[in-house]
């Protein structure tokens, strides 16, 4: 079975997730924005074999620790979609702007596209391209576990901001209604910030996309 543990990192309290296959204990880390020593301590405590970095998008609080972690452990960087290249290139400036430790720009080992899959151990997750918050944002869906790691597309009671460069409000709404809702009302999603919720709960009550 797919297992996961969410660890808030950086002053922005970004939900970084360790995901692993409990048969092989091979793991990936989703959105290592910072606090790498905290993340690596959790990896050690859980007895995981960290194999890859998966990125939903390239904002500093999600991707700030990626370059250093990849270099330190020789890990492949998987994702996001090419649309976020300009955010990756700007990571050093983002880190200075928001008072984060210096962040390295990097080139992902593999870009992700809608319909791709990523795997860890014996577990596979589906990739959906969900632009709007950023143009290259992707989401990782594990139907076997009824879980989705959605970055900053959707939150409990809210949605991602679209006032950043190349953000697009209508694209974001379309991503949520056309890409996330079909995953099922009973799917639990892990957002980039704040508590988990279900797509069904958000369809019913989220003031930004409720009733869609």
From TrEMBL:
Keywords carried by this UniProt record: Hydrolase, Metal-binding, Zinc
SMART domains noted in UniProt: Lactamase_B (SM00849)
GO molecular-function term, one example from the UniProt record: hydrolase activity
Domain Metallo-beta-lactamase as annotated: residue spans: 13-193
Cofactor(s) of this protein: Zn(2+)
Keyword Calcium (UniProt): no
Stretches that traverse the bilayer: none
Keyword hit for Hydrolase: yes
Pfam families tied to this protein: Lactamase_B
Gene3D superfamilies: Ribonuclease Z/Hydroxyacylglutathione hydrolase-like
Database matches in InterPro entries: MBL_Glyoxalase_II, Metallo-B-lactamas, RibonucZ/Hydroxyglut_hydro
CDD domains listed in its UniProt record: YcbL-like_MBL-fold
Location of the region described as Disordered in the Swiss-Prot/TrEMBL record: 193-212
Identification of the protein by name: Metallo-beta-lactamase domain-containing protein
Species for this entry: Melaminivora suipulveris
Source species taxonomy: Bacteria, Pseudomonadati, Pseudomonadota, Betaproteobacteria, Burkholderiales
């Amino acid at each position: 079975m797919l297992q996961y543990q969410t660890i808030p990192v950086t002053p922005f309290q970004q939900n970084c997730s360790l995901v692993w296959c409990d048969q092989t204990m091979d793991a990936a880390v989703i959105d290592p924005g910072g606090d790498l020593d905290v993340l690596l301590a959790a990896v050690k405590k859980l007895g995981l074999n960290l194999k890859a970095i998966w990125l939903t998008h390239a904002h500093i609080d999600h991707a700030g620790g990626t370059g250093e972690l990849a270099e330190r452990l020789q890990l492949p960087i998987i994702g996001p979609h090419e649309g976020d290249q300009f955010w990756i290139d700007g990571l050093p400036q983002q880190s200075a702007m928001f008072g984060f430790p210096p962040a390295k720009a990097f080139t992902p080992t593999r870009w992700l596209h809608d319909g791709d899959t990523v795997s860890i151990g014996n577990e596979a997750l589906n990739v959906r391209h969900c632009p709007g918050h950023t143009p290259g944002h992707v989401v990782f869906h594990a139907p076997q576990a009824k879980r989705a790691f959605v970055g900053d597309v959707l939150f409990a009671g809210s949605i991602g901001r679209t006032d950043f460069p190349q953000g697009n409000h209508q694209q974001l709404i379309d991503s949520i209604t056309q890409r996330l809702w079909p995953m099922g009302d009973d799917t639990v999603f892990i957002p980039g910030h704040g508590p988990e919720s279900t797509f069904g709960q958000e369809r019913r009550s989220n003031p930004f996309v409720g009733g869609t």
